[in-house]
Amino acid sequence: MEVGGVLRVEEVAAPEPGGECVRTHALATQRPCEGCGSDFTPRRLWQRHCTPRCQQRAFLERRVAAAVASRIRTSTEVTS
Ligand SMILES: [Zn+2]
């Protein structure tokens, strides 16, 4: 669930002297989206896209690229 994930992040971000601070910091820092390149603040440590929509788009683009690549490879295999 979306809400559960956010709650968990807030627990991690709870003030705790020492060690865990770096992890909390990394989570709160903005990073460029791998899909559109715009800066966003990830709500999850593994989040690499600004929105689920953007992630979906990037996923589809990768699939299309892979399909095109395999088609090119197949066609070169056929011709050679
Ligand atoms: Zn994006």
Notes on the structure:
The chain is 59% helix and 5% strand. The mean pLDDT is 76. The N and C termini lie far apart (51 Å). With 80 residues, it is mainly α. It has one domain (2-79). It is rod-shaped and about 50 Å long. It contains three helices and two strands. The protein has a two-stranded antiparallel sheet with strand order 1-2. A hairpin with a 6-residue loop joins strand 1 (31-32) and strand 2. The longest helix is centred in the C-terminal third of the chain and has 28 residues, at 52-79. Zinc ion (ZN) binds next to loops.
- β-strand percent reads 5-15%
Query: Which percent bin holds the helix content?
Result: 55-70%
- The count of domains is 1
Question: Sheet with the most strands?
Answer: 2 strands, antiparallel
How many strand elements? 2
Number of helices: 3
Mean pLDDT score, rounded? 76
Could you tell me how far the N terminus lies from the C terminus, measured between alpha carbons in angstroms? 51 Å
Ligand inventory: zinc ion
General form: rod-shaped
Global Rg: 19 Å
Structural class: mainly alpha
- Spatial strand sequence of the major β-sheet: 1-2
Order of helices and strands: HHEEH
State the low-pLDDT regions, or none: none
List keywords for this structure.
two-stranded antiparallel sheet, 2 strands, 80 residues, rod-shaped, binds zinc ion, mainly alpha
